[in-house]
Each structure stands twice: as C-alpha cells, then as structure tokens.
User: What shape does this take?
Amino acid sequence: MTAFGGNIRNYIGGQLVDPLSGKYFDCENPATGAVYAQVPDSDARDLELAVTAAHDAAAGWRDMGAQARAAIMHKLADLMEQRIDDFAMAECVDNGKPLSLARGMDIPRSINNLRFFADLGTQFRGQEFTSEKSFSYTLRQPYGVVATISPWNLPLLLFTWKLAPALASGNCVIAKPSEVTPMTAYLMSALATEAGCPAGVLNVLHGRGAQIGAAITSHPRIPAISFTGGTVTGRGIYQAASAQLKKVSLELGGKNPTVIFDDANHDLSLQGAKMAGFTNQGQICLCGSRILVQQDIYKKFRDEFVAQVKEISIGDPLAPDTLMGAMVSKQHMEKVLGYIDLAQQEGGKILVGGNRRIVQGRCANGYFIEPTVIEGLPAQCRTNQEEIFGPVVTLMPFRDEDEAVEIANSTQYGLAASIWTENSDRAKRVAARIDSGIVWINCWNMRDLRTPFGGMKNSGVGREGGMHALEFFTEEKTICRPAA
Ligand code: TXE
Assistant: This one.
C-alpha cells in the first residue's frame, strides 16, 4: 500500500507524479486539527498532460469492449477490498467521519460502485426501431474523454459513483476529488496500474476547485462533466460549460424534509429522523434537516427526539462507539456554527446542542459540533431555506397533508424527502406531491443503485444511477436504412 500521509501525487498516464509547479498545500485531519499530508496544487499544465494521455488511450479503451473493461474494474475492486481497512482508516482521518461509518458504508459502497457499473456496462445497449419503410438502430458511443468533479462529504463513494460509469461506458477519465479529502482517491489511483488499467485511462488530478477544477470545466477537449457539490459551485460550472455546450450532470444541495404523520410508527420514525439528521455529521446531501411533525403528536415526538439526540455519542472518530465525528474542516465548522447563530437571531429556540464540542485527549483541537435541534422557526426563514450541511435540524409542526406538502416544497431545493406513516394510501399521495428526486416511505437512504438519482429545482440537473449514468457518459447515434 502506498504510504498513508506525506505527499499525495497526481496519477497521469499511468504514473504517480508531482504537480509541474512543485507546489503543494496542507491537508488536515479535522478530528485533531493536525496537518498530516500535502496536496498537489495542480494547474492547467498538469491538466494538459492528463488530457493528452487520456486522448491517447481513448480508442484502445473504447475498442477493448465492455467485458474486458469490467475485468479490470473488478480487479481494481479486488485490490481495494484486500486493503479495505486501510481505505476506511484513510477516509476517517481525512474526513473526520467515524471509522465505523467509513468501514461500514463508504468503502464497501465505493468498491460496490466499481463492481456494479462494471457489470452494468456489459448489459448496456442501443435500441432498434422497425417500420414498413425503415430499419433503425442506435449506437451508444463514449465521448472519449470526460471529467468528474466530486466533493468531500463522501469522498471515495462519490468519486467512484461518477468514475465507474464513465469507465464502464468506455471513456477515459480526468477525475478531480475534493482538495479537502484527497487521500482515498490517491490510494485508489495508486492501485490502478496493478489492476491492469492501461496508461491514460484513469487520470486523477488533485488541487483547488478554483484552479484545476475551473481549468477542467473550460478545457475544450473535455466534452462532458459530471459534478457533485454545492449549488453555487454547480451553477458556476454550468455557466462555464455552457459556453462550449458541454454535457453536464449536476448533483447539488438539498434541504430535505422528514415528514412525520400522527399514524407513523413512533419508534421507527424517531430512529429514522435521527439517522436522516445526523449521519455523517449531517454532511450528506440527502440528510433530512427539516423535520415536519403533525401537530397532535408534535410535543411527544419532540421530547423523545430531543432525549435521544442527547444520547448521540460524539467524539474521537476512531472510538468504536462514536456515532458522530468531526466536521470536515475548520472553515465548514465555522459556517455551520454561523447558521446556529443565525437560527437564534431568527427567533429559533435551541432544544439541544448548539455549540462546538471540545473533546478531551488527542482530539482536543478537532472540529466537532454538537447535534443540534431547533424549534420555533417559520418555514420561510433562512435557517429553514438554506443548506446548512451540518448536524443541525429544525422541528416544525403541521396541520394536515396539504400543509405538510406546502412546507416540504417551500425551498429552492428538491433532492430527497422521507415520509413516515402507516397509511399506505396517504404515503403514496404525499410522495407523488413532494417535489424531489427521491421520496422514501418509512425509511431513509435506502438505495438501489439501478434507480435514477438526482434532484429537482436547484438540487441538480440530470439523473445518475444505473443506466442513467451510462447514458450520460455516451452519445446515442441513430443509424437508419430502408426496410429489407
Ligand atoms: O463544495 P464545492 P464546498 C454543499 C454544502 C457545502 C457547500 C460548499 O452546503 O457547505 O456545498 O461546499 C470543486 N470549478 N455541498 O465549497 O465548492 C471542488 O474542488 C470546478 C453539497 O466545499 O461545491 C470540489 O472538488 N470545480 C454536496 C467540488 O467542486 C470546482 C457536497 C465540490 O466543492 C470549482 C459538498 C470550480 N470553480 C458540499 N470550485 C453534495 N451535493 O453532496 C470548486 N470546485
């Protein structure tokens, strides 16, 4: 295994290389505040090398066929699986998330992303159309070279979620992980050659969004970009890419409602709202940060919810019983704390949490925030409208289905929602009326990787997942001849 810590390197044309500028910046362990690695500050010159390597490899990768590509992707997955504990530890140190979460969710799902899309690529096909006059069929052809830009909250999971369908559909890739959490993408890139990945097929460039990210977005030889991150950044990428009519897939923020009806299973809905609110320190685009509770059960639900949130163990991500680790960075911690201040200025009452948590011992300088529950705020205030992306939830009562739907739909976002009720007719009615890309009924974050995934409104453009991702990374060409 490549040494964990020290200098991270780019992976270009099958080689681990330093950035041409020789410049690096610090990478912190957010649970301790200590610098533990150096990130290449890549720029347009590094990109040029990667784009050339990728174009040189494109025809070979395309013509190799889906089965051979799948074999290489499975081999890479095998190599990662053999080092699963190292990857989990790296994700934990880089991101601040509990080791148990990295080991239980992030890394297994990352490996599965590779396997899932490797296999799906072998099933991918065009269409056929016959009429009295003509016979037509379509070819699904890769772009050649595409880019992926991914965020810090689920670093390897989202890196592979984009990379895998791009590779499986026959593209060479320029992949840019978040500069805040580059380590697992680096460790994975260091295994690609051993897995049999031809030089230039996968290129991983590290560095700052405003520099290497922007260079990728505007590069004329990268016709398609898949991005996951904040809505403001996504909008900028959309604008930059539109100048060259690039194909863009955007998976952006959320302000997701958790809707609890008075006939919900009490224990399950409490558990579900807690998971949706605080998993990964609330740093998942799917997190349910607005909890809407029907008014006749509001007080009972609130009191028990607050009691349970008080019990969430927060602290050293390495400790086996830790449920909440550190925020990803000092800057992000300060942003979230700023929103907690704002909530109070807006008249919100903090029922539990509300502060930075100083953890004793080796994590004394880490960036921890207490799980925070706020009530008494109107649906239209900034706290209830803007993505906080931290362990902060609000509670709001509602009268009936109509009011629940109205509040649920009252933000600029439309990514995910969860509905808790034992009445299946009501569940179906409300699910159909909520404006979001996915609605869960009596569950949260349950995922079938074949299903379309993405957001309505300002939560994104396009759908990922299953065939949708393979379609995004290919052009469909129609071929037509007279009927025989
Ligand atoms: O993410 P950015 P940030 C939300 C969350 C968070 C906010 C900002 O609310 O507080 O976004 O987070 C790259 N051209 N989400 O600023 O900037 C960047 O290097 C090209 C939601 O940390 O969106 C990184 O690789 N690329 C979310 C990626 O974009 C650019 C996950 C994401 O970073 C770029 C994370 C540019 N000009 C944050 N600027 C989700 N949807 O899951 C930055 N990048």
